[in-house]
Amino acid sequence: MLDLFDRRLRRDAVDDTPGCRIERVGEVVRRTGPDWNGVLWSALDENTADAAIADAAAHFDALGVEAEWKLYSHDRPADLADRLLAAGFVPEEEETLMVAAVAGQPREAVLPDGVRLVDVTDPGGVELMDRVHRAAFGGSWDGMREQLLGQLGRDTTVMTLVLAGDVPVCAARMDLHPGTGFASLWGGGTHPDWRGRGIYRAVVAHRAGTAAARGYRWLQVDAGPQSRPILERLGFRALSTTTPYLRPAPPARAAATGSPAAD
């Protein structure tokens, strides 16, 4: 399963996002686009890693954008993390790559009384998602809000919001990857006051039902420490860990755009 994931979603990745370009340069697959820039896959060794890292850094620096090298614990060489750090890439929190068969997942979203689930189809819904993400995860979510706004109306993105009355208490999305069999779950954040009531589990079930209806076979998640135990109880299996290594945009560009790197 790990080999299948690496091959279909990393090495042979495709993207139909307008303005996006995925290209293979040597043994590196990188993505350049309006909502995310970075390295998806690499097959490097001790002799090729430093030059490939330098080339990727120069590429994204020339574009004036922040970039992410998405490093997995099974990637090689074994000291790739140290080499990225030495090249100016900064690690964020480690997450667990988990996969489950859609066929084995509950598909009925069971929610507490007075709570309902809706699909997001307009900018107002994205603003409510942004409110939940800030409460659930903290930090700056300006870039994510812009990304979600850009994904509105796409057949390959499903955005979901959970409301208690008119108050947003959970938000999540699912990206569908045509031709791969995989659907990926992202941003499943629940407001701290509403945790422990089965809402996250219900949102997973809703997305599993949608994936099944679209003919997808597997669900993939980069799970944080709060969601991993829930996903394990649902039958998700840990395949690896993944850590984002971020390289800030060059200072002149960051100052001009007012991006978080300038703060």
Automatic annotation (TrEMBL):
It comes from Streptomyces tsukubensis (strain DSM 42081 / NBRC 108919 / NRRL 18488 / 9993). It comes from the Bacteria. Residues 115-250 form the N-acetyltransferase domain. One of its GO terms (molecular function) is acyltransferase activity, transferring groups other than amino-acyl groups. SUPFAM superfamilies: Acyl-CoA N-acyltransferases (Nat). CDD domains: NAT_SF. This is N-acetyltransferase. The lineage of its organism: Bacteria, Bacillati, Actinomycetota, Actinomycetes, Kitasatosporales.
